[in-house]
Amino acid sequence: MAVLLAIGACLSIGVYIFVSSSQYFVYAFKPYYIKTYYALAGYYAQNITAFFRHPGAVAALSESATANSIPVLLYHGIIEKNGVRLDGVNTTIDRFIDQMFALKAAGYHTISINDLYSYVRGAHPLPPKSVLITFDDGRKDSYYPADPLLRALGFNVVMFAIGNKTNDSNASKFYLSWHELESMRASGRWDIQSHGFADHDFYLVDATGDKGHFMSNKLWLKDQGRLETDAEFEARLTADLKQSKNLFENRLNDPIASYAFPFSDYGENSVNFPESVPLVLGAAQSVYPMVMIQAFAGTGYTQNYSDPGNQSFVVRRIEPGDKTGAELLARLQNGDAKPLPYHADLAKDEGWSTAWGAYGAGQGTLFVSAASTTGASVNLDGTLGWKNYDMEARLAWPKGSNAYLWTRFKDPGNFAECNFGNNLVHIEQRVGSGDVHVIKGADYAIVSGSSDITLGMRVQGRTVECLVNGAPVVKSDFLDPGLDHGGVGFKVWDHDMDNSEIVVKNLVVTPL
User: Fold this and answer.
1) Peptide bond preceding 289: is omega within 30 degrees of 0, i.e. cis?
2) Do the domain assignments include residue 28?
3) Whole-number Cα distances in Å, 176 to 37, 90, 118, 512
């Protein structure tokens, strides 16, 4: 019986894909595309009833079941390994198949750009296990290997295409043509959005011939022997963003609502214009309702939250890379919005993230330690939506002059902290990526070297309080209004290299 089912599934897949989608025929017999069809045949042999279900059908969910956060996945090429160096950007066909099957089996269903936009604005709830799947660059090796699988599993996706790489000829072996983009859009599975016009190339950024990203650097005007002015920089960005939006809307006759930053660089990786971030984000959001960046380690959180008061609508995306399906599901689970009260399971990593120093979770502890640095920091994914709560951490503090608890942590440029050390306890805050400012402080006899101490931080509204062994030490009612929500984290520091560490033994966060 199993053999007959497999044969029937193969025949069905063949008719389903090749007859109804003749553009696949040229690609159908390339070795690694065959893996897609073979995997689908096996999938349907085991789940034969799924084949007869409408591909886009999603079981109705209770209106009371709503997602507290939404992940967005980012892919580039879907490739055969065959000696190609994997750099975290591309995904092998085997792993992509494994990831898509894992999402389907776990109950995930795809949403659209418009669904996500309404969600982040707080205008429309979405059911749990909602996910937006995106691809960048308008590549043939994204569309052709992925589309049969997406079609069969009932997944809709988004392609962010580059304006000056798209033309009416099918001659390119790398970039999709207008005909292909139009066919993709007509299928109902693929939404086409903007990856800019000329912003994916590299340009001169100084007189010596160095090149940099289009969106984050002032360009070197060789004929005038100077860099662009601020006004010229902003005008160039805005013109490119508008050109791309108008081009795709006119060719595809469909509104373009979202823009994905090439290289996820919105100014923070600038070579010659470090002040560019607000100008870049401002230019992009003056043209597009929603912009996409990548959730790199240490930049905050991996998923997106419903926030009616947030008008920036910067969406974070996760790159699955070449993770297994199980590894991808674990990462999504770690990034899901965590409910309060929260008691950390320090036997495993529940979504800690660092961009500085070293950390590790396991065997009942979380250690945060300098690693050829003066300090280290971690924040807990899935906690961005927390507002009023009491954070209590029992820890060992073997070395380092300062230990910090973070609350209302939004990203590395926006957080509140209790700074314990050097015989003081300070309430501090950082807003808008500016300097860290002390709100209020107190003298207190506390130094490192303790093997067992409990540090706490309480935040409610604009009131912040620091505690040692359960006793309040310093309190302020002047937290910046912009820090109205955010999650938790830890930091350690010392003047000397490799001389700071804490070992967290217990972490409890209680709602207020």
Assistant:
1) no
2) no
3) 22, 17, 29, 53
Give the domain extent around 366: 342-511
Is residue 274 domain-shared with residue 412, that is, in the same domain?
no
**In this predicted model, what pLDDT tens digit does every residue of 313-345 receive, in sequence order?**
899 999 998 899 999 999 999 999 999 999 999
In this structure, the dihedral spanned by the alpha carbons of residues 353, 372, 375 and 391, taken in order and rounded to 10 degrees, is 30
Q: How far apart are the first and last CA of the chain?
A: 59
pLDDT (average), residues 259-269: 90
Q: Tokens for 150, please give them.
A: 């997406």
Does 462 share its domain with 351? yes
Same domain (yes/no): 157, 280? yes
Residues 160 and 261 in one domain: yes
- Per-residue pLDDT averaged across 435-445, rounded? 93
Longest alpha-carbon distance in the chain: 79
Domain CATH for 184: 3.20.20.370
In 285-350, beta strands by DSSP E: 290-294, 314-317, 342-343
* Confidence class for position 37, pLDDT limits 50, 70, 90: low
The whole-number pLDDT of residue 269 equals 86
Beginning with the edge strand found earlier in the chain, give each strand of the sheet holding 424-430 in spatial order: 352-356, 375-380, 487-493, 402-411, 414-421, 424-430, 437-443
Report how far residue 118's alpha carbon sits from residue 361's, in angstroms, rounded to the nearest whole number. 36
Residues 375 and 489 in one domain: yes
Q: Domain count for the chain, please give it.
A: 2
